[in-house]
Specification:
Bound molecules: zinc ion
Mean pLDDT: 92
Largest sheet: 8 strands, parallel
Helix content: 40-55%
Structural class: alpha/beta
Number of strands: 8
Radius of gyration: 18 Å
């Protein structure tokens, strides 16, 4: 633990109540408020081992009260959206996103595949039982240059025109390229850079793009061996608590099996933050993005 580093990184954040972060003392009390899972997949291979009733039960046991739902193909999202009685019983609001993938092959070619653009337009027109789609993604760009693919450009512009949120698994270079297509688009950066873009670079991008938020699953360097935030990340949250959110990223079945421990890990480090900042990252930022009321 680098307490001195934490306090140094706090800088002028005293006014926001971040100075006495007391990592050790407060970590004993996990965050107990609502969670918004802003990065959830219900892909087709999860249907049999984790049926709808089971996934909602996992959310309920974890205190997850809203989800960004997307899936490969979009059928899983529709199942979640259709299950309004189960969602209501579990106290979960489903925020549907259109995913770009009909199958695994689409991960690597969607950015130049006009049939994907057509499919997205059709899905948006159709909507879901839980209401209109609110976003596009998650999509992946394994080579940031593909952010300049024609369909990547069109979809960013579509998102801006229709006020859709984009969930993008990309590197920091691709953030600049995507935002250049449609400045001001609301973009959730999945994992806030799974390749480990430096905290300084993340800070620079947040400052450059006011509509950029970071989702924190799999983020390298976020927490230390004690499961608490590293001093660098505590410092970044002190400056930008309104720009981060949490997610499960249930991209494979193992993530569903670990759903409750994953959410408990978030509650552990959130519990060491000032209460208002923890609530924002756990719930408030994502809820604000989609206009979801805080559960009582
Ligand atoms: Zn994902």
């Amino acid at each position: 633990m680098k307490r001195r580093g934490v306090l140094a990184a706090m800088g002028g954040a005293a006014a926001f109540g971040w100075t006495a972060i007391g990592r050790t003392a407060r970590a004993a009390q996990p965050y107990t408020g609502p969670l918004f899972d802003a990065h959830l997949h219900y892909n087709e291979e999860s249907f049999a081992p984790y049926p709808i009733a089971d996934v909602f039960a996992r959310m309920q046991r974890s205190g997850v009260r809203a989800i960004v739902a997307n899936s490969r193909p979009n059928d899983g999202t529709k199942q979640l959206a259709d299950a309004s009685a189960q969602a209501a019983a579990a106290g979960v609001t489903v925020v549907p996103f259109v995913r770009l993938y009909r199958n695994r092959d689409d991960y690597t070619g969607w950015f130049k595949d006009e049939t994907i653009h057509t499919m997205v337009l059709k899905e948006l027109e159709r909507g879901t039982a839980a209401g209109p789609y609110r976003g596009i993604g998650e999509f992946h760009l394994y080579d940031s240059a593909n952010a300049n693919g024609p369909v990547a450009r069109s979809l960013m512009q579509l998102a801006k025109q229709r006020n859709l949120v984009v969930l993008a698994h990309v590197d920091d270079a691709a953030i600049d390229l995507l935002m250049a297509h449609a400045p001001g688009t609301r973009l959730i950066w999945a994992h806030t850079g799974i390749g480990g873009a430096s905290v300084a670079r993340v800070r620079e991008l947040l400052q450059r793009y006011p509509s950029l938020c970071g989702e924190l699953s799999y983020r390298p360097g976020l927490t230390g061996a004690d499961g608490l935030l590293s001093s660098e990340w505590a410092g970044l949250f002190a400056e930008h608590a309104q720009r981060f959110m949490i997610g499960s990223d249930t991209w494979v079945n193992a993530r569903w099996s670990d759903y409750e421990p994953l959410m408990a890990q978030y509650r552990h480090w959130l519990g060491a933050l000032p209460a208002a900042g923890a609530q924002r990252i756990a719930w408030g930022n994502a809820a604000g993005l989609f206009g979801i009321a805080t559960p009582t």
